[in-house]
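Run log, item B.
One chain of 352 residues. Sequence copied directly from the ordering sheet:
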Amino acid sequence: MKIIAYHLPQFHEIPENNEWWGDGFTEWTNINKPNKVGGDLQPLLGQYNMLDKNTLIMQTELAQKYGIYGFCYYHYWFEGKKLLEKPVELLLKEKDINQKYCFCWANHSWFRSWQGSKEMLIEQTYGTEKQWSEHFDYLKDFFVDERYIKIDNKPFLGIFIGNFEIAIEMYHFFDKKCKEIGFDGIHWVASWHLNKNSNPTKEQCSAVMMREPTVSFKASICTRAINKFRRIFRKYLPPRFAVEKYSPKVIMNNALKKMKDFDCGMDFYLGAYSMWDNTYRHNERGYIIKKPSAKLFYKYISGLNQIAKERNIEYCFFNAWNEWCEGMILEPDTKNGYFFLDIIKKVVDKNK
């Protein structure tokens, strides 16, 4: 099983974030704010800038040392408008960085949801073939890079929201354009979420990838009751007791059961996660999935690896390498050290 970790490139300044969130904003801004309801995550190796080549080198070497195959960078494209594109453009330029990578197009609108507002910051629209061609022309420079991940001579392109209105037409357009430059088509892979109504059909994509922890999210009756109490009486409770909390044991065991028997009528890739805490962004409106024990996390990764062997699945998409403000990390932190990477390395080494 090859683990590809989702990678968030929002660790550098861009004019749009400075306008929307204040001068100097990066993902570290939320991490550095006092968090009265959640954890206290801080990077063990220091806060980095994704526009620094040394950051790309450090992340590449760290991932490879602990058995992470590559990164799946979030790609932000709004009908020609690019956001947070500079880190991967730097990677493309620096050919000496031996990093396997691909894209997941985060094709959703941006809202001021971190502050509990429905104000739209930038809308996702898809345009027509003219705009699709412009998008493809941008991506093809990455597709032809020998480090970019391909499946059966088809560049991998993940799609965050797979079931959008023009998915079929756009999928076939990208497939045709890939064939024109020497590939056998596009490997268009849509995210599979918990809500079945938002999931794609086999006409809309080549395959799907399980999005965790949403796909396997589950809570016991007792946990649901406690969290309902928290929601009702939140304003009367101490901040740290008011936030919803969930058990990783229930979710991870459910994940192994679900993926062992999963069938959506097309090829799929496994998904995984480490832990969750989005209170850095949403304060008491967020929720926490607690850190698993070492025994549970080893069982989880080993179990996924066994499923991959049994079902001949090559890749597992891990959520995430560096989603610090959602508490989903593989990078070492000052509280947990190399906890997640150490266990993944144990599983990888055992199965070499």
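Observations after the first pass:
- The chain has a mean pLDDT of 94.
- Residues 294-311 form the longest helix (18 residues).
Flagged for discussion on Thursday.
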